[in-house]
């Protein structure tokens, strides 16, 4: 099965051996001529299956591996798939990023509970970043995470919040050199060629030159969301 989808404005052809996740791709379907083809062989899925969490199925592995290969295909067009929760607040997109299991979704839910009328989701796990002359914008993708949070909205990127778990809530602006290694790991590409690594390094440099980054050490409670909200409001909008 094949479906042509548009990710961050770039049409790609996805080749799927399984149809279990086809409904995830349908909102992104387009009729444009694809600029690249993306697929995962059955042999590759079988080889990678043991590396996934116990109980994972071949359709799930194919779905997840299509993500990193789609990112590879997007890199020549200055787009990339990024690991994080993306939501819109005050007309800009904000990225919550961290290692898996650190509490990105929990933190977003705390925001939603307290500031629900102010925010809207873009993507709950793997949004697309578009690097253009006008700036960096954030777009949805079919890879929405376990909670399946997402929409078809897009917005210009306002900043990045890097989450860490801790016993106390504390938030501070960080310098690029403090987060360059960790941030690089959030770009979801296969790392299969030196050229792609250089491309991502160039995109990360633009990212760090364009938008501010904060570190939020947090307990995953309501107070951590209030601290994040109020810090951004003060530092970005003097509110």
Task: Please work out how many helical segments DSSP would assign.
Answer: 7
Tally of distinct domains: 2
Q: What's the architecture of the largest domain, going by CATH?
A: Alpha-Beta Complex
Q: What is the CATH T-level topology of the largest domain?
A: Phosphoenolpyruvate Carboxykinase, domain 3
The CATH class assignment of the largest domain is Alpha Beta
Shape: globular
Count of beta strands: 12
Q: What characterizes the major β-sheet?
A: 9 strands, mixed
- Please give the alpha-carbon distance between the first and last residues: 51 Å
Q: Write the element-wise H/E pattern from the N-terminal end onward.
A: EEHEHHEEEHEEEEEHHEH
Stretches where pLDDT is under 50 for at least 5 consecutive residues are: none
Describe the structure.
With 239 residues, the chain is of the alpha+beta class. The chain contains seven helices and twelve strands. The chain has two domains: 2-77, no CATH class; 80-237, Alpha-Beta Complex (Phosphoenolpyruvate Carboxykinase, domain 3). The strands form two sheets. Strands 4, 5, 6, 7, 8, 9, 10, 11 and 12 form a nine-stranded mixed sheet that branches. A three-stranded mixed sheet has the order 1-2-3, with helices on one face. The radius of gyration is 18 Å and the shape is globular. The chain starts with a strand and ends with a helix. The model has no long low-confidence stretch (mean pLDDT 96).
